[in-house]
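request received
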Amino acid sequence: MFKVLQRIFKDKIATEAISTTGSDRLRGKIEGSCPSDMLAQCAASCPVGAFKASGEDYTVDYKHCLFCGKCVEACAASAGEGLQHSSKDVMPFMAEACQEVTEEVFKNKLGRSLHVRHLDAGSCNACDFEMGALGNSYYDLHRYGIAFVASPRHADLLMVTGVVTRNLEQALRMSYEAMPGPDRMVMACGACAAGGDTYGETYAIVGAADEVVPVDIYVPGCPPRPSQMIAALLAAADMMREKK
Ligand code: SF4
Ligand code: SF4
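response:
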């Protein structure tokens, strides 16, 4: 024990600091403007209708965006100009007033507690793999007072990944109803659960999670990075604390 304390004092840090300031290898927020009036071409190339052009302006709905890069590829401008994927993360946002989560959420606050039940409603599993990384020694989710639980009856928050399939629609509804109210919360994690358009419209798909249960927080990405998931979970824990 003494040796452990000695090492902590010597190294100063026991676990890595997590932030969402982005990475050079990341396809992040779309930035830039089109110098050649070809934004309609970018909008037409978007597979999920997240890119909307209006004259010289454009908007990207990050609830739906797959970060596939098609709009940037379709940009008529030469490399280095026009639309680009920046290296900045797109932050999670709360459903209420579309309020974006900020880096402030990582500032050390004691007294947080959140119990999370995960439900895969029909994902490709990439979101779930990223979520699995939350428990490793790098992300070390437990240090924030957040833990995954085995039953919705023990959960404050339901974390939904994947587009809601007809097979799992009932499971999603039942999981939500089994959670203790009135302060239960739902997080739609990834473009499938948040936007519901990733696989188009088929007989097997219901759509986004908010078509079945009320969603409180959305995490953009396909898949989102673990750091974005932690930011969203911390914001949810803070929101839960305010409610009580
Ligand atoms: S990155 Fe892909 S999904 Fe996102 S706005 Fe561009 S084309 Fe659409
Ligand atoms: S959002 Fe992307 S990574 Fe996540 S389940 Fe859907 S397709 Fe897979």
